[in-house]
Amino acid sequence: MSDHQDMNNDSNNSHDNRSEYRADTVMEHEYDGIQEFDNKLPNWWLWLMWGSMAFALIYWLVFHTLEIRNLPHADFETEMRLADEAMFERMKDNPVTNESLMALVEMPAKMTEGRDLFVKFCVACHLDDGRGLVGPNLTDGVWVHGCQPTDLYKIVSDGVASKGMPSWTNQLGPSGVQTVVSYVMTLRNTNVTGKAPEGEPCSF
Ligand code: HEC
Fold first, then answer.
1. Rounded to two decimals, what is the model's pTM?
2. What separation in Å is there between the alpha carbon of 178 and the centre of ligand 1?
3. Is the CB of 127 under 6 A from ligand 1?
4. What are the extents of the domains in the chain?
5. Domain 98-201: assigned CATH number
6. What is the Cα–Cα distance from 190 to 168, expressed in whole angstroms?
């Protein structure tokens, strides 16, 4: 076969292939004068469509329905929490300072824990948002025993037996006291209307 004939055959073949798509069958329906060809979609397109549908289904099952794997965001949160816990563990042996208590405020997991402790043990006397009932308003800028983080730590650890503020060291342990105190620090200056201010104005 000569080169010339080969070329002819090739062009005939490609012509045949294309004619598969050219054999346009017009489908029966017609909407607003628009008709549709019944053509075979290219394989790459079909692979892409079925592939993405399969991917979506597997993704949905694995991450949402069966929850075999965590979503990346949840993984990130867990890692952050573990890192915070590890840091808290290291801090436990050091003396409690304003800075160490301030550092807890930056740990979302500690704040949740602190809020839970507050709701469980403190709201009876300080009310839900800390606006005060038996105990003083913790949201104003006025404090009986000082407003520095270590002042709060001392009063919550030791209590004021004569005034009815219990000591919490035995019940919560030093780390529990630190956690709840760091939460109380976030209430300072939120100024919820409640019990009238008691003590000295304090700037922080
Ligand atoms: C049984 C009631 C009661 C409970 C429960 C209670 N407190 Fe108090 N709290 C008081 C009273 C009363 C005072 C005021 C003490 C004083 O005037 O010397 C006070 C004072 C305080 C102060 C100092 C306020 C200031 O103005 O200096 C802080 C901080 C505090 N409480 C935090 C807490 C935390 C945190 C908890 C929970 C772990 C808690 N309290 C649970 C009654 C309570």
1. 0.71
2. 15
3. no
4. 43-94, 98-201
5. 1.10.760.10
6. 24
